[in-house]
Amino acid sequence: MNFDMLPPRSQLVEVLTRIYNQGLTTTSGGNLSILDDNGDLWITPSGIDKGALSPEDIVCVRADGTIVGRHKPSVEYPFHWMIYRARPDLRALVHAHPPALVSFSIVRKTPNTCITPQSRDICGLVGYAPYALPGSEALGEQIAATFSQGFNSVLLENHGVVTGGQNLTQAFQRFETLEFCAQINLLAAKLGNLQTLTDDQIRLFYHSDHHLPEFVPERHSSRELELRHDICRFVRRAYARRLMISTGGTVSVRVQDDTFLITPFGVDRYYLNPEDIVLVQDGKREAGKLPSRAVKLHQQIYRDHRDIDCIMTAQPPNATTYSIVSRKFDTRTIPESYIVLRDIPIAPYGLTYTDPRAISAMIRPDAPVILLQNDAVLATGKSLLQTFDRLEVAEFSAQALINSLHLGELVPIADEELRDLRRQFKLS
Ligand SMILES: [Zn+2]
What is the pLDDT along the chain (428 residues), one digit of tens a residue? Predict the structure, then answer.
């Protein structure tokens, strides 16, 4: 779907419904807007159930101030106007009170976005606007002044967040990624030892070369066509389970030998279609499509490991937090975790881009899941289902570990019992 071709009122409903369904706003909080080429402001209404909004509910505030629509515009619409006036490059805004960002706003801190290169790239640094009465001129002035300094994401003191973009997709992606960052910052605060990235480390990410030479496939086999659909199905499932966000996560599946399918670069995971998936064959990419930045890493793993047919790199919040703090992810918690995950090594930051071979060498039958430091969780398997399961078990296990921190110290399954598990389940 070409989201930008939808009329503003449909875009707003689509994104607000998505925000609501993801638990990132309550029914009463939050508002979104688009400024169109005529200078008209399209904005969500005041006091209408966010869980059941339709395009007809959207209000248009004309450039001359006339209000068109069956409802009143959001009470926050003055600050939307003031931000657009201060930043003519912004054409869409998202405002809400998502729980993790509100935690920061009520202790007057901003989340650190330099935890992964993607989050720094998408959100930038976060601005901070002092408290003022909702709907007031003063609030609008404070927020617009912070946006004027060049920030695209602004935390509102004792209130919530506003993100802006050149279109609604970009504003939404900044909003969703920033809440994800805030979640990880909160989880890392429980574990301790948050490791953030320097500018030099972040620069490595931009140097990753995923522009493989192109080729035009002669035909598409039935197996390949089926796998394209299967990848989309699992990406949607991972998104719905919060194992991925719209801007992060790569899935690939081997078609045969040195041929595999991989998710594309820069496409919103929520709207992924089978035709977006990129075929990579003998080191070349399907003409006209750009694969994920991680393509060379996936290619290396398929070449080195004939028994691996699927790879997923994703950022489920709890497991990803273990990649950002220097603390061992212990899988000796319950039999399921130990059997499915075994050992989880951590690959130093940057190897994804500089030395994929070194990461590939870390994958073993007793280490099918790897943490990529300040980046993601990498899971491998024989099939999409097995790989997805490993990702999901990693996230559940990490969540249980982090939640247990304030209950008491982990009592791991004893070595003798682990031996029994390996014997019983024929593990190496
Ligand atoms: Zn608000």
Answer: 688 889 999 999 999 999 999 999 988 888 999 999 999 999 999 988 877 899 999 999 998 989 999 999 999 989 999 999 999 999 999 999 999 999 999 999 999 999 999 999 999 999 999 999 998 999 999 999 999 999 999 999 999 999 999 999 999 999 999 999 999 999 999 999 899 999 999 988 887 778 899 999 999 999 999 999 999 999 999 999 999 999 889 999 999 999 999 999 988 888 999 999 999 999 999 999 999 999 999 999 999 999 999 999 999 999 999 999 978 999 999 999 999 999 999 999 999 888 999 999 999 999 999 999 999 999 999 999 999 999 999 999 999 999 999 999 999 999 999 999 999 999 98
Partners of 245 in the β-ladder: 248
What does the alpha-carbon distance between residue 422 and residue 124 come to, in Å, rounded to a whole number?
A: 46
Q: How far is the CA of 99 from the centre of ligand 1 (A)?
A: 13
Distance (angstroms) between ligand 1 centre and the Cα of 83 equals 15
Q: Which CATH class is domain 205-424?
A: alpha beta
Among 330, 344, 336, 327, smallest CA distance to 412 is for 330
Domain ranges of the chain: 3-191, 205-424
- The rounded Å distance from CA 118 to ligand 1 centre is 27
Give me the phi and psi of 160, to 5 degrees please: 175, -135
Report how far residue 23's alpha carbon sits from residue 180's, in angstroms, rounded to the nearest whole number. Answer: 12
The CATH number of domain 3-191, selected from 3.30.950.10, 3.40.225.10, 3.30.420.40, 1.20.1250.20: 3.40.225.10
Taking the centre of ligand 1 as the mean of its atom positions, its distance from the CA of residue 70, in whole angstroms, is 22
pTM for the full model? Answer: 0.94
CA of 28 to the centre of ligand 1 (A): 9
167 Cα to the center of ligand 1, angstroms: 20
Please check whether residue 81 is in contact with residue 115, taking contact to mean a CB–CB distance below 8 angstroms. no
Sheet architecture: strand order including 369-372: 214-215, 284-286, 278-281, 259-262, 250-256, 310-314, 376-381, 369-372, 346-347
How far, in Å, from the CA of 156 to the mean position of ligand 1? 9
CATH topology match: 3-191 vs 205-424: yes
Alpha carbon of 288 to ligand 1 centroid (Å): 42
Contacts of 235 (CB under 8 A, 6+ apart): 244, 249, 251, 263, 269, 272
Residue 399 CA to ligand 1 centre (angstroms):
30
Distance of CA 322 from the midpoint of ligand 1 (Å):
32
Q: How far is the CA of 39 from the centre of ligand 1 (A)?
A: 23
